[in-house]
Amino acid sequence: MKALSIKNLRKTYKGGFEALKGIDLEVAEGDFFALLGPNGAGKSTTIGIISSLVNKTSGEVSVFGYDLDTQLVELKRQIGLVPQEFNFNQFETVRQIVVNQAGYYGVPREVAHERAEHYLKQLGLWDKRDAAARMLSGGMKRRLMIARALLHEPRLLILDEPTAGVDIELRRSMWDYLIEINKQGITIILTTHYLEEAETLCRNIAIIDQGAIVENTSVKRLLTTLNRETFVLDMSRNDEQRIEPQLEGFTMRQTDDHTIEVDVEKSQGLNKVFEQLSAQDIKVISMRNKANRLEELFVDLVERGRANKPAAGA
Amino acid sequence: MASSYSAIALKTIWIKECTRFLRIWVQTLVPPAITMTLYFIIFGSIVGERIGDMSGRPYMEFIVPGLIMMSVITNSYSNVASSFFSAKFQRNIEEMLVAPVSTPVIIAGYVGGGLARALIVAVIVTLVSFAFVENVSINHAGILVLTVILTSTLFSLAGLINAVYAKTFDDISIVPTFVLTPLTYLGGVFFSVSLLPGIWETVARFNPILYMVNAFRYGFLGVSDVDVGVALGVIIVFNLAFFATAYTLLQRGVGIRS
Ligand SMILES: Nc1ncnc2c1ncn2[C@@H]1O[C@H](COP(=O)(O)OP(=O)(O)OP(=O)(O)O)[C@@H](O)[C@H]1O
Ligand SMILES: [Mg+2]
């Protein structure tokens, strides 16, 4: 069964702005799915419609087979939402916020209190349970929203940029947590600007730009379609001088005395790089793949998508 | 199943609403006590002495029910108006919108909060009045209770509708200032409308608050400017109309869903 199925979804905001121009999307049960796109692409709009915060203009949405138009109550029960912006009452305490949210889903209060303890402990917020939400740090507020979304034990967790403004260490611990609950069977959809995040966490990915899906595939396949990669090479030579290698047939940038970045097309392979460097008596000490491969790809795709379309307003 | 879920959701909203106004009791429960004490001192003791009787009652006794009603109206209204608007403003209204909480449950939860505050304030003001009036008699307890509940419900609904339309905090003080206060003052809190000259007495009868004040006064003192059955009928009709309005607005997501 599909955890999420969206057909020809359109949204025109009051004032006439067309934020979604007919989106199709399917997310399998158990998937860890990334929705990527630049600012204003329509990610939050899509999520808003799925979670009843935004009215759709047309199209169909179903979650675990429950239709948004005809089975709203059942559909809502399946979803836990972590929105992009903080949206809790700043004056309520951490525990009140999560327990009340469970109450809205009809979870009895005693059960809600037990679960609150469980999830707040897991997310490292138990010590702050009686603090007013406004006293929390940004990262704690994000985790509070995750705990709040889990209390009614949804089958589909949707996170809209959950790690925005979260430091690296906390981000990684949040990733571990998400991977863990995904293993336990919760389907996860997440939007992000951090491409490393999508690459680390997600199996499948859709890229959205200007209200349309420009790519929808598995992360692995997407990475293999990447036909150019950038490698960073650290080099040395006996004389300790600045090394200025010449590489015929490759685009190359020197970043300091001993480091270059080389763009390598899939068809070229790396052998020619090493052959030429050896011939110049240069030793390659280490080599790594420049991070953000996905980032380049992403820019590529978005640009390609836009090139195929008449310019907006034209 | 569905109904027990709804009962839990309703209880949750209600508890949350009560927690809110109790947490800020200095802003919610103390001011009506102070205002009413002032009214009692100025209109009751100082001015009232010179007025003598009104509708066959000492002036002080006459104004007690009206003043209680006035506090009930302002407090139920402003409780729901500010709470719902602040939920919109801080966006925590979204917590309810994503969950399977039906519109009537949301309305009932907020109205329940307004009702609770209004009743607590009514008790406080009544206790304050004991300090000024020797014997506050209760003639028709049933009508008294019914009127206070229906009136709080009505103004909670009105506050909710106001909050739905409000875009800034200022927007939730416009109606109390320009509509509620004048209607309350002209609604027979301080005088019997039978004292108004000719045409104005007729005009005064178009003021719904007149019916609430008089029904309530009837519960206390057994005197009223209007027929109590008609008064209760008017209040009930207004309640139904306001509920229908609030229901339609929330169901359509006016002001809360883009
Ligand atoms: N309530 C609204 N009224 C009018 N236009 C809106 C509204 N909300 C969003 N938009 C517009 O719709 C487009 C898509 O917005 P959306 O929030 O879905 O983007 P996003 O992909 O989530 O972007 P970001 O990465 O910046 O969060 C934007 O151009 C935005 O200005
Ligand atoms: Mg967004």
Structure, explained:
- The complex is a heterodimer of chains A (314) and B (258).
- Chain A is of the alpha/beta class and 314 residues long.
- Chain A contains 10 helices and 14 strands.
- Chain A folds into 2 domains: 223 residues, P-loop containing nucleotide triphosphate hydrolases (Rossmann fold, 3-Layer(aba) Sandwich), CATH 3.40.50; 64 residues, 2-Layer Sandwich (Alpha-Beta Plaits).
- Helix content of chain A is 34%, strand content 29%.
- In chain A, the strands form 3 sheets. Chain A has a 6-stranded mixed sheet, with helices on both faces.
- In chain A, helix 3 crosses helix 4.
- Chain B has one domain.
- Helices cover 77% and strands 2% of the residues of chain B.
- Chain B has 11 helices and 2 strands.
- A two-stranded antiparallel ribbon of chain B has the order 1-2.
- In chain B, helix 4 packs antiparallel against helix 8, helix 4 crosses helix 10 and helix 7 runs parallel beside helix 11.
- The radius of gyration of chain B is 19 Å and the shape is globular.
- The chains are: A alpha/beta (314), B mainly alpha (258).
- The site of magnesium ion has 4 residues of chain A, from helix 1.
State the gist of this model:
Chain A is an alpha/beta fold.
Quickly list its features.
heterodimer; A: 314 residues; alpha/beta; Rossmann fold; Alpha-Beta Plaits; 6-stranded mixed beta sheet; 4-stranded antiparallel beta sheet; 10 helices; 14 strands; 29% strand; B: 258 residues; two-stranded antiparallel sheet; globular; binds adenosine-5'-triphosphate; binds magnesium ion; ABC transporter (chain A); ABC_transporter_ATP-binding (chain A)
Share of residues in helices of chain B: over 70%
Q: Radius of gyration of chain B in whole Å, from Cα?
A: 19 Å
Largest sheet of chain A: 6 strands, mixed
Oligomer: heterodimer
Helix content of chain A: 25-40%
CATH level 1 class label of the largest domain in chain A: Alpha Beta
Biggest sheet details of chain B: 2 strands, antiparallel
